[in-house]
Design a protein that fits this description.
The chain is an alpha+beta fold. The chain has 2 domains: 58 residues, no CATH class; 104 residues, TATA-Binding Protein (2-Layer Sandwich). The chain has 5 helices and 10 strands. A 6-stranded antiparallel beta sheet has the order 3-9-8-7-6-5, with helices on one face. A two-stranded antiparallel ribbon has the order 1-2. A two-stranded antiparallel ribbon has the order 4-10.
Length: 172
């Protein structure tokens, strides 16, 4: 998964997704989610930091800004061909040296859609929903809310070139 690759790339001990999925790297983790392991590690963390509450520990984490999961309508019969064209445009943007949110595109991961990763680690994702007639769009910035909004605006501009894509269920 993207998160496991990113944890390994950064040498991090853990990675967490807003969906609730998480991954602990070795020596703590075993390569899969385990609620008991999480409970043990949180107890150890609190024991090492007796003057801090769980809220204090959470506040010590780096801040990120993320969109909600947004789903523009796209008919089931069209969504995969529409997505393939969007992915091709995003890959072409990277190859042409274009930017998203004014930043260079470091990588476009094309597994199950496109995750556009910027040079600072911020990203935008577009994929097809597996169970509804929609695309799925999520963006995240480690820099600022303004950058997160700019990532969405640039990704949405590519999505909007497709006439088969309709209104979002929600936006930022």
């Amino acid at each position: 998964s993207h998160m496991k690759r990113r944890v390994k790339q950064l040498g991090a001990l853990a990675g967490f997704e807003k969906s609730g999925h998480y991954f602990f790297a070795e020596p703590v983790g075993r390569g899969y989610d385990c609620g008991l392991r999480v409970a043990v590690e949180i107890c150890k963390l609190m024991d090492r930091n007796p003057s801090m509450s769980m809220s204090d520990l959470r506040r010590a984490l780096p801040q990120t800004w993320a969109t909600p999961t947004m789903s523009p309508y796209c008919a089931d019969t069209e969504k995969y061909s529409v997505l393939n064209r969007i992915v091709a445009r995003l890959v072409a943007m990277q190859e042409a040296g274009e930017t998203v949110a004014g930043r260079p595109i470091a990588e476009v991961v094309t597994v199950n859609g496109a995750r556009v990763i910027l040079d600072n680690g911020s990203w935008g994702l577009v994929r097809a929903s597996s169970n509804t007639p929609n695309l799925v769009v999520v963006c995240e910035s480690g820099e600022s809310e303004a950058e997160m909004r700019a990532i969405f605006a640039d990704i949405d501009a590519v999505i909007r070139t497709e006439p088969g894509v309709g209104a979002y269920d929600q936006t930022i």
